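Incident log, support desk, overnight shift.

02:14 A customer reports that sequence design results differ from what the structure should imply. Their input is reproduced verbatim below. On-call engineer (initials T.W.) acknowledged and began investigating.
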């Protein structure tokens, strides 16, 4: 896995395999989510998955409206 995104709240890792692109997000409080995109997914799609994952992880616990991607 390659570190591709980092914020104050979480880090994002990306791994390309023959079956797809896996984006894993780990928060500072040990919550984790993994999202999968098709093999042909671009870096922009991976960025979108990171934002989507962050929204899922923090919906209900904080009011995040915007998340910068490193």
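02:41 Re-run completed on a clean worker. Output:
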């Amino acid at each position: 896995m390659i570190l591709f995104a980092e914020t104050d709240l979480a880090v994002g890792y990306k791994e390309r395999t023959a079956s797809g692109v896996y984006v894993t997000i780990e928060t500072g409080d040990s919550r984790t989510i993994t999202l999968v995109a098709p093999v042909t997914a671009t870096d922009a799609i991976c960025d979108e998955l990171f934002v989507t994952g962050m929204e899922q992880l923090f919906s209900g616990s904080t009011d995040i409206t915007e998340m910068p991607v490193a």
